[in-house]
Amino acid sequence: MRKFLLVLVLLVFSWIYLVPSCSAKFGCDALGVAWADGDRCPAGIQGAAVDPAWAADRLATIQGESETFGLFYDEDGAEVEFKSGRGGDADRVVKILTELGKIPQGTRPYVVDHVETKVAALMRQEDVTSGVLVINKKDGVCTGDMSCTAFVKAILPAGSMLVVWSPVEIGAGRALTLRGDS
Q1: 89 backbone dihedrals φ, ψ, rounded to 5°
Q2: What span, in angstroms and rounded, lies between the C-alpha atoms of 117 and 180?
Q3: Angle between the 115-125 and 148-155 helix axes, to the nearest 10 degrees?
């Protein structure tokens, strides 16, 4: 019986490490999510950035969240969840914006609590140069001088890019692309 269990464990580990799978990438799961283009995940970050059907499938998983909620995917397809509101991630945004001279010491603009700026701060801190974010905010990303779009561009290092899908972009069939300017 012990040999059988050992063989079984070895087979499971072999399957996990040797068989190509997207089960943990770009929001795919081992139970099989129905993807619009034939039961497959995006091949990479570029695919996730241009596939509104994939983004709509991801949005469906977070649509019921009460606050703005986001799923961020890095270049490797790893998923990180973000929620709007105060806390450690927002404090990181304040610190970065203050260090960059974008806000005066001791101030706290409302957008530091938004998912988009929290993701940009993580990307800057972890040297992630491109990512895709799916948010459930029905009105999309806030725009204007003191908005998510302005602050995300300020937080992201030059050459970095964050692609954002919200219900607005999914409906239009085209994501919003924000590029770093700092």
Answers
A1: -65, -40
A2: 12
A3: 0
CA dihedral 4, 17, 61, 110 (to 10 degrees): 130
Nearest CA to 69 among 101, 111, 115, 127? 115
| Cα distances (Å, whole numbers) of residue 45 to 24, 42, 50, 67 | 14, 7, 9, 26
Q: Give the pTM.
A: 0.82
Contact (CB, 8 A) for 119 and 87: no
Residue 65 has pLDDT above 60, yes or no: yes
In contact, 122 and 153? CB cutoff 8 Å: no
**Which residues touch 108 (CB under 8 Å, ≥6 apart)?**
94
Of 115, 167, 164, 113, the closest CA to residue 136 belongs to 167
The DSSP annotation for 47-62 comes to HHHH-HHHHHHHHHHH
pLDDT of the residue at 31: 40
∠ CA 96-136-128 to the nearest 5 degrees? 35
